[in-house]
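In response to reviewer comment 3 from the previous cycle, which asked for concrete evidence that the modeling workflow produces usable outputs, we include below a single protein chain processed end to end. The sequence was submitted unchanged, and the resulting structure tokens are shown without manual editing.
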Amino acid sequence: MSIITTKRKYTLFLPTSVSCEIKRITHKWILWTSGPFGILQRAFPDTLKINLHSHSISFFEASGVKTFAKFCIKLPILTAEFGPIFLAVQKMIFSCAIGFRRYLRVRGVGYKFIYDKPGTLTINVGYSHILSKKFTDEIQIKATRKFKMIRLHSKGLTEVTSLISSLRNLNKPDVYRGKGIRYRYDKRTSKEGKKRRTF
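The workflow returned the following structure tokens.
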């Protein structure tokens, strides 16, 4: 395949803790990113032109020509296809370098998180029984001193968001008093209760 014209160029600067490697296999590029939080890989179409430097990686939005026997087919790249590819690489680098963090907190008398066993989180949210949730080893959990807030840290964004939403669904905040499990910056307006009628 030959590149004819270059339309756009995007450059991502790599942090010092992340290293990338590119390999071309039949009709696609394979990109590996490795960092403190693990190794990720993703395949991209060969209609892209990728240049890897010591501290940066560049993507060229181009149109190419493929020759099959006696036929010549033009393959232009649209901007709508190139945008998600660039964002996916940016997400890979971010997840390998820093990871994704999400926070949960509880509100109520006696409500708290208990993290004493690896891979299991126990929650006391006012029920007669104690709730427990299991998760993979890739997710790291750290609690505050009073066990009212926890921080979930992982390289996968979907894993963290799915776990944090399932934990919140165990006991959603009450619309009147606000007791329950909520996000860190979850602003909820409390409903006004019934007023006693005075004669």
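The chain has two domains: 2-97, 100-183. We consider this sufficient to address the reviewer's concern, and the full set will be provided in the supplementary archive.
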